[in-house]
Amino acid sequence: MNLKKMVAYKVAEEIKDGQVVGLGTGSTARYFIERVGMRIQKEELDILAVPTSYQSLFLARDWEIPITSITQHDIDVAVDGADEVDKDLNLLKGGGAAHTKEKIIDYSASEFIVIIDDSKLTDKLERPVPVEVIPTSSRLVCEELNSMGAKVKIRMSDAKDGPLITDNGNFIIDADFGSIDDPSKLEYEINNIPGVLENGIFSRGVDRVIVGTKDGIMEL
Ligand SMILES: O=C(CO)[C@H](O)[C@H](O)COP(=O)(O)O
User: Fold this and answer.
1) pLDDT tens-digit profile of 24-70?
2) Who is most buried in 2, 109, 140, 178, counting CB within 10 A?
3) Is 96 marked as a binding-site residue?
4) What is the distance between the alpha carbons of residues 128 and 126, in angstroms, rounded to a whole number?
5) Is the CB of 22 within 6 Å of ligand 1?
6) Where is the active site (predicted)?
7) How far apart are the two ends of the chain, measured CA to CA in Å?
8) Tens digit of pLDDT for each residue in 125-171?
9) The domain containing residue 191 runs over which residues?
């Protein structure tokens, strides 16, 4: 059973005519976009969508989903995946290097719904934190993150030699702090380093977390 598809399709059924919908990034969000696209084709579902990345923009275009932007519309509901969700509903995102735009769109939405399979659930956040940095600041930010106790790596591209470049033209530093005791404090402290654009800890704003499990769908 494909748990990501199951949960994404279920939440896509909740989308209503007239809504402005934030489209997340990643393999779970991809299924959500696919199902919304099918509903537009088959049921004439009437929505506007705000993509969080080029990946979701291109998918939305493939499905002929009408696109707008947050410069023009407020978002009613944003639906996005996550790499980890802890017991207090803090998220770690940015596996797809899209967390900066995801955070802008997800945090601004009237309702932010997270869709995951149950492999993403954890007691505490513990994966490396993706940190988007302006390239010229990367050495200094690495040093600062090191002094805060993290092991750091600049994320490399699979498609070319050298570093991955984000949709915003920046680098990603993956900063491994081990298990994170206070996600909200760390989210704030990392963003306080000069040259950091945004990090992948989402410590607020989540309204619902919907989880695909082998026994069906559950809501946290
Ligand atoms: O934050 C993200 C992209 O930046 C994704 O939402 C996150 O990586 C989850 O991806 P997937 O649904 O493929 O497991």
Assistant:
1) 999 999 999 999 999 999 999 999 999 999 999 999 999 999 999 99
2) 109
3) yes
4) 7
5) no
6) 102
7) 21
8) 999 999 999 999 999 999 999 999 999 999 999 999 999 999 999 99
9) 129-197
- The total of structural domains in the chain comes to 2
| CATH number for position 23 | 3.40.50.1360
Task: Evaluate: CB of 184 within 6 angstroms of ligand 1.
Answer: no
Whether 102 and 189 share a structural domain: no
ipTM over 0.90: yes
In this structure, are 28 and 107 located in the same domain?
A: yes
Do 113 and 172 lie in one domain? The reply is: no
Query: Which residue owns the Cα nearest ligand 1 atom 3?
Result: 96
Residues 210 and 114 in one domain: yes
Residue 110 shares a structural domain with residue 179: no
